[in-house]
User: Fold these one by one.
Assistant:
Number 1:
Amino acid sequence: MNYLTLTETDKAILESYKTVLDGLAEYLGDGYELILHSLENLEHSVIKIINGHYTGRVEGAPITDLALKMLDNIRQKKEPAALCYFNKKNGNTLKSATIPILGEKKRIIGLLCINFHTEVSFASILASFTPANSIVPGVTETFSDNVDDLITSALDEAKNKVYANPLISTTNKNKEIIHLLYEKGIFNMKDAVIKVAESLGISKNTVYLHLRNLEKENSN
């Protein structure tokens, strides 16, 4: 029996959250149980679960009484918001969160539930936050509060890398800098072409020429 009738858009929104769970699981580690509920059918609400061994649940499991209570609490608020709380399972303390998922017309169509199982060893938790477990080791990220700083930072990094490489000829240095910026997606930012051209002392058309050539290479 259906609890809600979901639109195709609602279903697509819920489907997109499955990759969110995968990303959270990779980031948070094994101590977290992650559950995605669809409110279409409460008897089989679990449409994705990670680390379900903690509670013995699998996809197709029903919603819990606590999740229903949290849903009711969320609906009583003027604006749907996540709820964080502690509860117990088999004598173990869990730190939990229930996050509403909104569909069309701001209806609550699903729940993203996170349970941290506090009995997990500290060593196991710590292991998930060490560089040795990084999927992409050595990656650095630039945190900027405006687009200009982001472009400038990426440009400076690319220039330093290219200018320090004696294997890149003088005539190819600008091309290689543009290539590095292209790979980072910098040219998706507004006015990036203008700023790069000014910094390298070349015309916008030259930058566009290099970008067209890169597009052609990637399409082959």
Number 2:
Amino acid sequence: MTGMVYWLDMAGVIVFALSGVILACRSNMDPFGMLVLAAVTGIGGGTLRDLVLGIRPVFWVSDPSYLWVILATVGVSLVGFHYIHRLSRGFLPIADAFGLALFTVIGTHKALLLGTSGEVAVLMGMMTGVAGGMIRDMLAQRVPMVLREEIYATAAMAGGIVYVTLQALNAPLNLSIGMALALTLGLRLAAIHWHLALPVFAWVTLPPKEADPAAPLSTPAKAKERVRMIRRERKTKR
């Protein structure tokens, strides 16, 4: 990888590791729990990407600097624990958005270097950006961000498509990276701020015949109203 891409990768590890530390603090975990969440978030997506692409050894085995960066992030966080604990709840999704954008570009770039098709490169970029956060959230017993309402994986996919397209047009590497980062980060931050989401398709349910044969069927309008109520309840809880 070029020097710029390498340092972007390191920046993504730091940001994602910090998001793991923040979630560990809010989940009342000990320092080892903080280290585990920081590690799986920082290198989990890239590890899965390398395994799928058949890269041996995976990136952090051949370059242990990634592990030292994670250790340093956790160490600094322990020293400044009280400051991290006071961060608003909006900081975690914002930090996660920056990590998503960085890792999406890194994953897409690495897949293209290995000669994969554009479609596979986009999927690898999305996997790199999403997988670590999913593992982090599941270990903390939270619904993964990628499965919530706001646009998440879609932002990563859009950024990957832009990167692949610009590289296919022989655009400069700096331009490709900058445009892909801006689009992924912009979409994710916009989704957080305005609660942007893809359409929800609700099932139309049928009432049991034994209970009331004459009961009216659920209509699409009622199903949509139910979805809106669930969204309002989730926003209220936040």
Number 3:
Amino acid sequence: MNNLSSGQIAELFGLQKSKLRYYINKGLLSPRVDEENGYYLFDESDIYRLYQLIIFRKIGFSISDIKASQAVDDLMPLLHKSKQMLQANIDELISLQKLTNKIIDSHDSSQLDDVYFVAHADRYFKKLPQDMVTNGEINYLSAIKQKQFKIDQPYFIQSNEAQVDVCYASQVSDYDHVYLAGNYACINFLVADEVALDLKISQFLEDPLFQLTQSKDKQILVYENVTRSLAYNSGLVYTVEVCV
């Protein structure tokens, strides 16, 4: 085949000519130089080498990896290593995609400040030890040692006006609070602080429906909806649930 100029080969692969010069300066390409005008000329082996270089860069090889690969004939060990790295990247992207979908689905499932109803099975909650909670504030470094505690969703269970327990989801074999199966009225509040949250909860519980259906000692379940909160910068989203 005829030799190609820098401009022609750049057009062939959709590259900037500066990128070609970069690869040449790094010693990854060694095209012939036209003695008359000093222009680079690329033959078929140069085109193959550039194609390999482009593919390897897309795979994730570094410049130093590619340069080292040119000194050996069998590239399979390097390719197997890259296959593992690509799979790890794919797994991470899938995980991030699931998280993004979860945030969007949580946001779209209901409007803020609108009541919706959910049917729940029995749920069990365990109180965090007292040394992990100070004035209602969680010591996360200590709390995370509890295997079942999830940093993205602590539960605040209000047994009565004077008692609020910080809990995590547990099992029937070990619990301090149980929420029996039933229909629950739920609402999501976006608030900047606890004062605003307490006001929102009070207003929510003043609904005549709850005045008729709940006893004074009825438990209220409040938890930080961290997943949904990721869609906002102005505060945290809290979910409040009351059995009806």
